[in-house]
């Protein structure tokens, strides 16, 4: 009887780990509605995989009379669901339903014992991209080139401000066109 219970618990544990590792398979049930409207998940900082940070350089940052020097004007932290990085390493592509969230932070720069240091402070907003390998929303102007594209401002995390991905999003991603529109070089976790 104890062995049966132990086997049952082991199977349940493995099943829950398996489900947690491929949460991107539920994206179109939980984060995208039938019309292609994308939602920003509440828990991504706690439950998702951190891919990396981009630093937006400032020409000269002066935060106080003591701090001067170069630093960051902003930081962009990027997250994705668990299992996406492993899928990418195995297939060299993002799976259908993968969500990438780029959290936009203002940066504060000040002297520290290690030198002039920039750190993220106030959240400005979130860029969200959803991988669509099936071309689900051909008439929705937020979808195309294999992705759904939206921006949420920090003042309203429930309403996307993007109206058309072609005029508002793609321009910044043109240099990454050959890498599925994603600057994958910034995410070493995808290639480890």
Question: Can you tell me about this structure?
Answer:
The chain is α+β, with helices and mostly antiparallel strands and 192 residues long. It has a single domain, classed as Chalcone isomerase, CATH 3.50.70. Helices cover 23% and strands 34% of the residues. The protein has helices at residues 2-21, 27-30, 44-47, 84-91, 165-168, 170-173; strands at 49-61, 69-80, 99-112, 115-131, 143-144, 147-153. Strands 1-2-3-4-6-5 form a six-stranded antiparallel beta sheet. The longest helix has 20 residues, at 2-21.
Note the topology:
Layout: H1 2-21, H2 27-30, H3 44-47, E1 49-61, E2 69-80, H4 84-91, E3 99-112, E4 115-131, E5 143-144, E6 147-153, H5 165-168, H6 170-173
Antiparallel strand pairs: 1-2, 2-3, 3-4, 4-6, 5-6
User: Can you tell me the overall shape?
Assistant: globular
**Count of individual domains:** 1
Order of helices and strands: HHHEEHEEEEHH
Spans of 5+ residues with little confidence (pLDDT < 50)?
A: 6-20, 61-67
Instruction: Quickly name the level 1 CATH class.
Output: Alpha Beta
- Backbone structural class: alpha+beta
Q: Which strands sit side by side, in order, in the main sheet?
A: 1-2-3-4-6-5
Determine the N-to-C terminus distance: 43 Å
For the sheet with most strands, the description reads: 6 strands, antiparallel
Helix content: 10-25%
CATH architecture annotation: 3-Layer(bba) Sandwich
CATH topology descriptor: Chalcone isomerase
The portion of residues forming beta strands comes to 25-35%
Overall strand count: 6
Query: What's the pLDDT, averaged over the residues?
Result: 87
Spatial extent as radius of gyration: 20 Å
Per CATH, the superfamily is Cytochrome P460
Number of H- or I-type helical stretches: 6
